[in-house]
Amino acid sequence: MDKKKELVVIGAGPAGMAAALAAYEKGIRDILILERDGELGGILNQCIHNGFGLHTFKEELTGPEYAARYADRIREKQIPSLFHTMVTAVRSGNPCTVTAMNKEMGLFQVKAEAVVLAMGCRERPRGAMNIPGFRPAGIYSAGTAQRYVNIEGRMPGKEVVVLGSGDIGLIMARRMTLQGAKVKLVAEIMPYSGGLRRNIVQCLDDYGIPLMLSHTVTKIHGKDRVEGVTLSEVDEHLNPIPGSEKLISCDTVLLSCGLIPENELTLDAGAVMDEVTQGPIVNDRLETTERGIFACGNVLHVHDLVDNVSKEAQQAGAYAAEYIRNKKNEWGKPLRPPIPQKTKCTLPRGRDMGSQLICIGCPVGCLITAKKERDGSLKITGNTCKKGEDYARNEMTAPVRMVTSFIRLEGEDGKVVPVKTAREIPKGCIRACMEEICRTVVKGPVKIGDVLIANTADTGVDVVATGNTGLGGREYGQIYHGA
Amino acid sequence: MYDVVIIGAGVSGCAIARELSRYRLKIVVLEKESDLCEGTSKANSGIAHAGYDALPGTLKAKLNVEGSRKMESLSKELDFPYKKNGSLVLCFDEEDVEKLEELKRRGEVNGVKGLQILNREELFAIEPSVGERAVAALFAPDGGIVCPFGLTIALAENAAINGVEFRFDTKVVGIQKCEEGYLVKTGKGEIQTKIVVNAAGVYADEIHNMVSAHQMKIVPRKGEYLLYDQRVGHLVSHTLFQLPTALGKGVLVTPTVHGNLLAGPTAQDIQDKEGIDTTSEGMAKVQEKALLSVPQMPGRQVITSFAGLRAHIVQMPEGGREGDFLIGEAADAAGFIDVAGMESPGLSCAPATGEYTAKLVTEILKPEKKEKFIGTRKGIPNMAHASDEEKHRLIQEDPAYGNVICRCEMVTEGEILNAIRRPLGATTTDGIKRRTRAGMGRCQSGFCNPKVVELLALELAKKEPDGDLYSKIRKSGADSWYLTENGPEERGLFHG
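^ Those are the sequences you sent over. The predicted structure of the assembly is below.
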């Protein structure tokens, strides 16, 4: 492999893929993507639920499907990627230097005219929250548990308490329930949820999982494995209220308490950081204070929607391409990328569950009122689009949901392929559908859209694959080089 | 028939085992947990104290100064992380400077070299992050920091290479005096031995009381700590102690050998000998007290908290001295040697404790020295700190050293496999963590845990090819499972 490139992209998640493709569109051909995991897609590969792509593709996709839209184009354009490859250092300069290592090439350096940082973020660990108690097995960050369940096809516990109501926590509450665990509750220290309203409806309400606002875990019990937690109510200063403690038995604690941009390389490169976003300071061209090093996606600041990551990364890729072509010398003014105001997710108190609904059609989560008129027809108000009306109508008569899960691959221990119902099925059929999904074993290779179960639970709806098998490979040491 | 049974694979037990492995003796170390270094040795300050603290004439003073002196050369022979970073005892009140002088005199009597009282200017010149309230400090250039796991594991591996047997998950449930020595009863059978060495940490009283009528009682003293991100590890370069103030005993703030920042411990007597849970009060106390030494202690950079138990003897049996270690043959049990009450500075003393105790044993058994004692040991390569040339060489020898598993600490597959495959190798994720640091960084194993579990399962598969291996992987103890036994499908859906 030639060790001189025009552009090196660090990370093959949504940000890295979009940046590489944007640079390609701008005429840059000599690109290399470095990825620590074994395939394109990053964390999207474990986000097998639906809800992605409404902005970018005007349709609702699962994480692997969204990733595949980009990955297919990366392969089509033959943009080379190195997998199982860890970048250990990045240095600005003309050219920049990227140091990395993997099994086959050992420690190596690549010179690049520009570098795009797209390493994403990590989850806040338990220690950062100072939760007292023992340190047994069974405490997972929600994303780690998600990887175990959705990628490895393994179960990290049976009785679960989720701390923090961020979206990953809510999604995992549903996921663990669908896979047979008992999720006892989701505790949130704030008086509102950090997740999207629609996720509270479709992940908690649908399965009767209580959301305990203004509550937190004040102790973890169990020396070897988690045996339970002490749950306490907190006052307006977020301090636990003495006397409110309740012991909740469980064997698993999932933490969903925020994400931190992963900027070790950025810091090491010498880039100046933004205290607020915990990402690097960038100019209006998404270039860090280190010349030729650009940043985008969750490395820059934590995004709520992957669609926004892709959009920002596209810009970063295009700016990097322009930089490679023109080598502009002025850095310009630092500019904080637009961070959409996060709406505090409050559920109306005393909501009349009989007629008031939260739309799950998109991240907005409109509060819709659906009233039965005297003539038997439904009067629907509060929705801001047609989707809301359809949703409310269904919800009042025959509620439907899309089911996402995985199906095991025959003869491949632990290997799974993500699936979804091709469209929503009646809520009442979810259980039967999941039982079918769990019983099913399929032979690889499988590609996106393959029908794996026809007419699941007699609903007339098929269960289809949302991921491809046999691309890149997850085996240790297999370094796929696309070009 | 064994010559020596050592009870406890903590730092003292392993140091004694290593010293005794120089002789032609049949030795076994019995450990109730599944790995080395699972008790007091795993959760402490990681300090090699200079030796000014203990009262002159005590075993604590003697062994501390000796142990601390040996630590540096031992770290080279056995390849574990140690650094002589110097320590400072901070004084926050002009009236207390006399106490510093007293500490200095005490240290000099104990044989500590180079002690020096620093005034404010001198103090701030060598440690600029110290708080404004400090008025003077005692400087001990010989104070150091050491990796407590690294030390314990190195001693044990070296002992094992020299023929000492280790048995894990083997709890001693009774000891009977018999004609030729003792019959040690464990959960996994009985062992005949001439000598018993009781290095059972907080349980040393229970072991002692099995053979002696002179009762011992140990009350575990809990100490809670906060560990900070390596990003702020350079905030201080020396180990900073505090002279006790009107507010009570202080806490220390220190860099660790691995570049983190550590603050603690609290000191609370508790009843539960397994009570290593942290408390919100304890953590708040550490944070508050640490601010006195270093006002910029960054609360937001805490990556984990932990608690350890120190073995504090409250009822000293005959022959012991109040407030001191108890090392010696029990008054009414010949051949039964206590190594008890090994609270601070037990870690610093370990190299000397090993020699001192070994001498007690060899005086009884009068064994011959081995002709071929292997005095050195090579640790696991450390890719994070290796030079580029070393990295190249290691990856060339074994490509697994090119595959990073733990990104926070830059630990590779090669290091993890090495940790599993070496003598007394890791069998749990905690074991891997203590040997390689995988999972010890800022994400606290969020990313590497599934990969480490996979590597352990794949290695286990070579020994036990049957069954669901992933569900057999443990964090540490027998019940610390990570993954359920069956896939979700077999347990039925939708509980309740």
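Chain A touches chain B through 65 residues (CB under 8 Å). The radius of gyration of chain A is 23 Å.

Shout if you want it in another format.
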